[in-house]
Structures are given as C-alpha cells and as structure tokens.
Write a structure and sequence with these properties.
Elements: H1 12-25, E1 53-54, E2 62-63, E3 70-74, H2 76-82, H3 87-91, E4 97-100, E5 109-112, E6 120-124, E7 127-128, E8 146-153, H4 157-160, E9 167-173, E10 186-195, E11 200-201, E12 204-211, E13 215-226, E14 230-231, E15 237-238, E16 243-254, E17 259-275, E18 287-303, E19 313-328, E20 334-353, E21 358-377, E22 380-381, E23 388-403, E24 407-422, E25 430-444, E26 449-460, H5 464-468, E27 472-475, E28 481-484, E29 493-507, E30 515-536, E31 551-573, E32 576-589, E33 603-612, E34 617-626, E35 642-651, E36 661-668, E37 688-696
Parallel strand pairs: 6-9, 28-31
Antiparallel strand pairs: 1-2, 3-8, 4-5, 6-7, 8-9, 10-11, 10-12, 10-37, 11-13, 12-13, 13-16, 14-15, 16-17, 17-18, 18-19, 19-20, 20-21, 21-22, 21-23, 23-24, 24-25, 25-26, 26-29, 27-28, 29-30, 30-31, 31-32, 32-33, 33-34, 34-35, 35-36, 36-37
C-alpha cells in the first residue's frame, strides 16, 4: 500500500526536506524574546471555556461568556491530553454533538442538535470546506496540526451564509508562537504515539521560530500508520479498516507594524482498502483501494490599529481541493472524484462610542465562493457524481450594541444569491436568493449571572449532487436498474431558531483563583423544505426510466421541528476539577407526523480530575452515559444505551534535565464495552490504550 500524490508528486518528501533544512540552519539561533510558553502543570485541568475568545459566532473576537449563541471551545491542551485520533475524538464530549458514520475516519459524520454534517458548515482557518459526497467525511485533517476547535450549535447563516443550518465547526491550526517558549527564537519538537485499537503508530516533527521581529514560521509533518484493523469490544475486528496517512502544514506570519499577513498550506493524504461506502462492513464486491487527498491554501490580511476605531479590515483568500481515487478490486473499475472550492471573504469593523454608556461595533462585508465538481469512471464522465459548478455571493451587516456594560444586543442581516449548473446536461440552472436575519441579546443581571436570548435564521443551497446526479443508483437483475433523475428545481432548506438560556460564572468561591461556570440553554429550531433522497423502486416504466427498477431523486419532502436543551456545570481549582453536562434533542416530522431518524440520544458527560503541581502530573476521568434511543420512525431500529469510561494521565516536567519532555497516557473505553452509536451501522472500538511522547528543544 502506498500513497499517490496526484497534484504534488514530491508530496511529503518536500515537507521532510524543508523540515531538515530548517533544522540544520535555523535551530541554533537563540534570544531573550518570549512569545509563548508550554502549558504549566497547574493548567492541566479541564477549566470551563466561558473565558475563551471566539470569532465563530460574530466574526469578531468576543469571549464565549459575552455572546448569546451556544459555542464550545476545545483548546490545545484538551486536544493533546485526549490524544485525538481524528476530529471525532476532539468533539465527543460536547453536549448535543454526536458522531455518526462509524469508526473509519473516512466516513466520520458529526451531528449537531439532530442536524447531520451536510447541514453543518466546516471552516479550516476561516476557509469553507464544502466537499460533500455521500457516505464520506466532509473534512480531512490531522488533530496534531490543530490549536483549537470551536463548535457553534444552532443556525448561523446571517454570519456565514449557506450551509450553517445545524451549526458551525471551525478548526484553527497552530502558529509558531503557540510552540515557542520564553527566551526562544526557534525550536524543534519531535513526537511519537501509539494507539492499541488498530496498532496505530504516530510519529511527527515540528520546526518553528522567528526570523527578525516581524516574521514567524511553522513547518509540521505528521504520519499515521494503522497497521491492524479496528478491534471491537467483543474481540472481533472491523475488516478493512487499516490505513496510512500523511499530513503537513507550512504556516508563515508577517506582521509589519499594524499590518498582519498569514499564508498557510496544508496537505492530507490517506490510503487504504475500504468498502466503497466506508460507513458499512466490507464485502468482496464493494472493496476498493482508495486514495484520498486534500489540499488547503489560505492567505489572510488584517489591519489592527488601536488608534483607528473605524478601520479594522480583514480579507481572506482561499482555495482547497479534495481528490479521491477508488480502484474496485474485483474488476479494476476506477472512480475519480474531484472537488474544489475557491473563495474570498472581506469585512471591516467600525467602533462607535456613542456616549459613556453606549458603544457599537458595526461589522459589514462580502463573501464569495465557487464550487466545482467532477467525476470520472474509467476516464469517462461519471454521472453519479455530476460535473457542475456553483457560485454563491453574500453581503452582511451586523451591529454589536453594548449598553451600560450590562446589556448586549447583536442584530444582523445578510443577503445571499446562489446559482448552480451542470455541465453538458439539458437542465436549467438552479438559482435563488435569500435574506436571513438574527438578533441576540445578553443581559448581566449581576456580575456573575446572565440571561441570554437569540433568534437566528439559516439556509442551505442544494448541493450539486442533489441537483444534477444521473446514472444508475443500483441494479436489480437482468434488464432492471434503478436510475437517478436530476431535480434542478430544488428549493433551499431554511431554518428558524429560537433560543433562551442562563449563565453563571464566579471565581474565588472556595480557593483563590478557582472558577465555577454553569450554563443552560433551550432551543426550538423550525426547519422547512428538507431535501431528502426519494427511492421509488417499481417493476414497470415510470417517468425517467423506460424500463424496470424505478427512479431515485432528491426532493423537498418535509418540514421539521428540532427542540431540546443542554446544561453544563464545571468547577476548576489549582488541584483539581469536576463537572458534568446533559443534552437532549427531540425531532418531529411536521409533514407526515412521527419523529425524525437523524436525532442523537440523550447524553450525560461526567468528569473529574486531580492535579499535582509538585510532580507535574495531571490525572483525568470522564464517563459518557448515553441513553437508549427508542424514538425512531416506524420501521426504524432502536439503539441500546451504553456507558463508557475514559482516563488520562499527563506528565509535563517544568524543570531539570527532562524539561521539554511531555508524556500522555490514556485508556478509552476502559471496560471494553461492545457498543454501537445510534447513528452508525458499524460498532465502535473496544478498549484503546494510548501513549504519546514528545520532546521540545
């Protein structure tokens, strides 16, 4: 098994060569400049994230505690401690977030408040990730490259445009300043890891530093080799779940004066033998040798001058591509999938101090992106993945109003126009426009108690596959085939969400600098014009199929309501932490009656941990208590509940000859539970021993 780098023949070799070059010529340089620090031992606790700063909800920097939307932040320390194998490991403890698609990372499909990943917007360093192909993950990246992950629960089209019906998942990659310690101008970090569930080996290296006082660089290379199939709790294995993957990141920042320029390029390549639908078990006639490649190129400009309150612009230009090559083993058939997104975002924020008690931060801008899809089978056009393109442009305005430092109001409006068309098909283009509104409010009753309310709208333009797919869906014997029929007249899905909640955050309750945070929210999300895949399987001619087998087409088939609540409580002090969360979502089909199928079960997360600063040690424990999901549509399959226990141990020496070493040990699914998540066909991994060691010098 090996990887084929279609667009970059040298691929990972270029990253290795560049890394070695920087190691030899830059590493010896030292100075007294301090940029960042390694996490001290007394911070290895699961502190609440209400003090984290996020840009996901408003596209401006605000503390999570100061926005009316529900946002969770998973920071660098949590990612390291959990030794995340994929993006699912990063998010699995978050309330009302579930992971569908099964344990293979190629099929991972997050769900937020009952909305699947096709109704979630993914961002990587601010750039849209619009790749969407049935039974496939939407985004491919290695967790070792990530600084943080922001998850916004609830519609967000007024800020981000099409796609954010269920929420936004925003990934931010590391910078050199995240790794530099006081007194350093350059450094090298080598790391290695192992996970027992599939005999996975995880080496990696980072080279980073400063060049002058205005420029910093980061080069990172990561490799994963899952040498065995995933082991389940009963001892059996998920056949054809082995893989090899390479990931690279080159990121450069230049900050002359008040100007900031950032350029990054990211690569991800994975190869392995999997079923064509990686979310199901493999059979001899579905097994393919799949290579997946994703490339991301991002250029950002910012201007930040504290003396100029009117001008705070930001511009982002990006291009990303996803390419997949599948060679079916039993007959050699070659399927190629090629998808790209090119976009530009431009916005400015102006601050107005109206009086001693009233301020405004007005943000306005324009977004544009172009999606292009191509599919080939044995070098000919593949109708099941149509060739087409989509263009979307949006203009938005948002006003963040603060009164008496107690009341925050954030109204916003956005207009989007979208147009999609297929190449070489006698169908009309799909075009439409949409205006979305939002208004949110936060009132500080006291310095430690706040009330929040939020109304937001969202829409999702139909995808190219939903609009223009043709060809054969499946065969049913000699002279019998079910055929795809395109539907260029699909309407956009729309969502109308109401949310209310309360928050408590208080410090110095029992000990100096301890922190308590409690927050709860209730939401009611009304969704119209759900797009669903309708299969009409008959043995007589119907429009679109003159033979036997019927047709399959996408259509706006129903309206729905998703409602529920979530509550989180966390307490953290110097020597330990504890907390819990509970989340619940209910989904109802308002067209035909009954419940929705894509809704996760109720979930409790209970956690606690101890910290020993004297020994630079931190111990953590988490339990996931997932209730049975018996609320399924007629004919659906209920899922039993289950309880999982995970433990972590981190050692980060702060002094002596071992300073710079970090060791993380963990056990997922401590009791070796054999279980299946409700939204999955496949069972999840059993007990997984994890070990990661790094050295920074």
């Amino acid at each position: 098994m090996f990887l084929r780098f279609k667009r970059c023949p040298a691929g990972w070799k270029i990253y290795l060569a560049t890394t070695v070059t920087f190691l030899l010529f830059i590493h010896p340089v030292r100075a007294e400049t301090a940029s960042a620090d390694t996490e001290p031992a007394d911070k290895l606790i699961a502190a609440t994230n209400l003090q984290e700063v996020t840009v996901t909800a408003t596209r401006t920097s605000r503390k999570v505690s100061e926005i009316p939307e529900s946002v969770s932040v998973v920071d660098t320390e949590q990612i390291r401690t959990r030794q995340a194998a994929d993006i699912g490991d990063i998010m699995r403890y978050l309330p009302n977030v579930e992971l569908g698609g099964g344990p293979r990372n190629l099929g991972l499909s997050p769900v937020i408040r009952g909305m699947g990943d096709e109704r979630i917007l993914f961002l990587l360093d601010g750039a849209r990730q619009d790749f969407n192909r049935g039974h496939n993950a939407r985004i491919f990246t290695d967790p070792s490259l990530l600084k943080r992950v922001d998850v916004m629960r609830g519609p967000a089209s007024t800020v981000w445009g099409s796609g954010a019906l269920g929420g936004v998942i925003s990934f931010t990659t590391l910078d050199a300043t995240d790794l530099l310690r006081p007194g350093e101008r350059s450094g090298i970090k080598v790391r290695g890891g192992f996970q027992s569930m599939n005999e996975q080996y995880i080496p990696g290296v980072s080279v980073y530093g400063l060049a002058g006082e205005e420029f910093d660089y980061l080069l990172d290379f990561s490799y994963r080799n899952a040498a065995d199939d995933i082991r389940h709790g009963d001892g059996s294995k998920l056949q054809n779940s082995q893989f090899q993957s390479y990931a690279g990141l080159a990121k450069f920042n230049w900050t002359p004066g008040h100007h900031q320029f950032m350029f990054s390029t990211q690569t991800f390549d994975q190869a392995g033998k999997v079923p064509s639908n990686s979310q199901t078990a493999s059979t001899p006639d579905t097994l393919v040798d799949r290579d997946t490649e994703q490339r991301n190129y991002t250029l950002r400009y910012r201007y930040e001058n504290p003396d100029n309150s009117w001008l705070n612009p930001e511009m982002l230009v990006y291009h990303n591509t996803t390419y997949s090559l599948e060679k079916r083993l039993f007959d050699g058939r070659r399927d190629e999938t090629d998808f790209s997104t090119t976009g530009i975002n431009a916005r400015n924020s102006s601050r107005l101090d109206l009086s001693s008690f009233a301020t405004q931060l007005i943000t306005y801008g324009v977004d544009y992106f172009h999606n292009e899809a191509k599919g080939r089978r044995n070098s000919a056009k593949r109708p099941e993945f149509p060739q087409g393109n989509a263009d979307v442009v949006g203009v938005f305005l948002q006003d963040e109003i603060t009164l008496w430092d107690r009341l925050s109001l954030i109204p916003g409006v956005r207009w989007d126009y979208f147009r999609s068309e297929a190449e070489g098909m006698a169908t009309n283009a799909n075009k439409n426009d949409r205006v979305n509104f939002k208004i949110g409010g936060l009132f500080k009753v006291t310095e430690w108690f706040s009330l929040i309310g939020n109304y937001s709208e969202a829409f999702r333009a139909p995808t190219l596959s939903e609009l223009f797919t043709t060809g054969t869906h499946f065969t049913c014997g000699p002279g019998c085939a079910n055929l795809f029929v395109p539907n260029p007249n699909l309407k956009p899905e729309t969502a109308f969400n109401k949310e209310v909640g309360a928050r408590i955050q208080k410090s110095n309750l029992l000990y100096e600098n301890d922190r308590l945070a409690i927050r709860g929210a209730y939401f009611h999300n009304k969704v119209k014009d759900f797009v669903d895949l309708m299969v009409d399987f008959v043995f007589f001619p119907v429009p679109g199929n003159p033979g036997r087998g019927g047709v399959t087409t996408s259509d706006n088939v129903r309206d729905a309501v998703l409602e529920g609540f979530e509550i989180e409580a966390n307490y953290a002090a110097k020597y330990g932490y504890t907390g819990f969360s509970y989340s619940q979502t209910r989904g109802y089909n308002r067209t035909d009656g009954g419940v929705l199928s894509n809704v996760q079960p109720d979930k409790w997360i209970v956690m606690a941990g101890l910290n020993w600063p004297t020994y630079d040690l931190s111990l953590g424990w988490r339990s996931s208590i997932v209730e049975a999901q018996n609320r399924v549509p007629t004919g659906g399959t209920p899922t039993p509940g289950y309880t999982l226990h995970d433990v972590t141990l981190s050692w980060l020496p702060q002094n002596g000859s071992l300073k710079g070493v970090r060791l993380d040990f963990g056990i997922d699914n401590l009791t070796d539970k054999d279980y299946r998540r409700h939204l999955n066909v496949l069972r999840d991994p059993g007990r997984n021993y994890k070990l990661a060691v790094s050295y920074q010098f």
